[in-house]
Prior knowledge:
Mean pLDDT: 94
Structural class: alpha/beta
CATH architecture of the largest domain: Alpha-Beta Complex
Bound molecules: threonylcarbamoyladenylate, magnesium ion
Number of helices: 10
Amino acid sequence: MNTKILQISLENPEIEKLNTAASYIKDNKLVAFPTETVYGLGANALNGNAVRKIFEVKGRPSDNPLIVHVSSIKMAKKLIKNDIEKFSSLTDLLWPGPITLIFNKENVIPDIVSGGLSTIALRYPAHPIAQQLIELSGVPIAAPSANLSGKPSPTNEAHVINDLKGRVECLVLSGKTVFGLESTIVDLSKYKPVLLRPGPVSVERLKELLPELSIHPSVKGEEAKNPLAPGMKYRHYSPEIELILYDGNLDWATKKIINETKKIKGKYVILCSEETINFYPHLSRKVSLGSRKELYSVAANLFDILLSLSKNDYELALCEPFPETGIGLAIMNRLRKASWKTVKK
Ligand code: TXA
Ligand code: MG
């Protein structure tokens, strides 16, 4: 397939290019586009045939529902049965932004979008290109992350090109995404709010706004018997090499990793932090994910580093734990999902 590549400026988005991208959405074709979290692979959310192509291209199981992206509260209102005004204290503060909210779905949304569920995940992204693309298309856009199923989400142009060039009609490219991790997901369709996926909007912040918020056990890696987000049961973000996460306190983890590396025969790499990189023997292969004092930048680098590991001929990656405060909870959630094995203290 011939893929139209549109390079769009973030500061001054070229309207004619945005119109071209929107015309693909209106024609029920697929368009990859940037958001402030990760790149998405979008289709007209009101057209079941357009949405079906997303599942085919990604190789995504059909029971794993998609997030629908809107460009206004007014647009969101038409897609759900709940009275969205009831949640205005939340949406006024957090939308547009890196958070997805789950409501009861209206029938205008085809069942394929929600994987047959009666609920729908909605996000109003803060990214100017994403917002204008939705606005010019005139329809809500269903979009999962723009990676092939099972791989880390794309956070830069090269990731999107690698996975989707030749497979979809149009790629809108606009540099690196800001957060580098997918949105926080909160289910508001149940009696009490539940955090289903940690992300850039932290639990600490959410609890100020939703004191009754509970945290789904899968967020911390506990096996969910009845996964609420169907995506929870699939293995995610897997780099093509084996990743071992040392999941405990940092002191213990660094010592354990040093001991382990003495025994390994193959080519390994240690995933560490600026604060700890010098603890490891001089000759070890090591990559810093960033400073522990700047977890937002660790998050922004994470998927790119995981994706780059398979390009080198490493056989094994040994990874330090990060603190589970702020966006750290999302970092650890993605690392646990990416890991082949976790070693606990
Ligand atoms: O930041 C993001 O959220 C990105 C950008 C493109 O918006 N999107 C994204 O989509 O990460 P995806 O498809 O990779 O992850 C969506 C997650 C899946 O785990 C899915 O199971 C869950 O949201 N989900 C979608 N609809 C749901 C629903 N009605 N109930 C529970 N979980 C739902
Ligand atoms: Mg995804």
